[in-house]
Amino acid sequence: MQENNPYAAPAAPVDDVGNAAGIGDLIEGGRAVPAANGWQWIGGGFALFKRNPGIWILILIILFAIIGLLSQFWLGQLAINLLYPVFAGGLMLGCHAQANGEPLEVEHLFAGFRERLGPLVLLGVLYMAVTFGVVLVASLVFGVSLLASGLAGATAMAGLSMLLFVLVVMALLVPIGMAIWFAPALVVFHGLQPLDAMKQSFQGSLKNIVPFLIYGIIVLGLGVVASIPLFLGWLVLVPTLFASLYCSYRDIFVNQA
After folding, report:
1. In angstroms, what is the C-alpha Rg of the chain?
2. What is the spatial distance between Cα 185 and Cα 189, in angstroms, rounded to a whole number?
3. Cα–Cα dist 203/178, whole Å
4. Gap between the terminal Cα atoms of the chain
């Protein structure tokens, strides 16, 4: 008897995923799920990793090689940020293929270049623009605070200004992360436009703060463990996290009735 996988979708050809065949109906804005699901997402992601561990690790090596190559150029970081949603969308397609009983392939890393490339790139543009805006706002706050501390002649105030800068950046980056987390999957599987995908990703994340808190604590612990053997554990952890993203997306946004 085939094991019942709560994250598995109805069987459908991988080529049809781009038009949402077999993915299920979208739950607008997502739904709130139990706190324990934060752990289940990681368990579901690891289950997908175990189905094709060699291919997952190969995909990760290729992805890191691409990032390393692009980072050698002055526009490389720009390209990396632009292409992240494209690669993430492709990996979501790969996870969906596995959920359907299909094998994961290296080509899935590049599937986003075939499925919804324009909206995925635009998603990267919006992500960069918002991130730049956050850094700009935080820099202005830091500059004003630093100027005030200079006029006051207080070294301690300069340190507080730097702390304020870091806190402002962190506070503003959290909602950006919430807006981008599910967006590639929403674009690829449901054809949402980038802004709508980011809005719904934020809404779904906001409804599930507690599960994400548990998820984050567990990931933090796993990251420490993965770093012990010369960081080799990250070859397992990173693919598991990508797959857990797919599991969390299906749990929150897909009506599987």
Report:
1. 20
2. 6
3. 8
4. 21
The string of DSSP letters for 115-180 reads SSHHHHHHHHHHHHHHHHHHHHHHHHHHHHHHHHHHHHT-HHHHHHHHHHHHHHHHHHHHHHHHHH
Higher pLDDT, 135 or 233: 233
Q: Taking the CB of residue 244, how many other CB atoms lie within 10 A of it? A: 28
Report pLDDT digits (tens) over 72-104: 887 877 888 889 999 999 999 999 999 999 999
The whole-angstrom separation of Cα 11 and Cα 99 is 8
Closest CA to 97 of 109, 85, 86, 87: 109
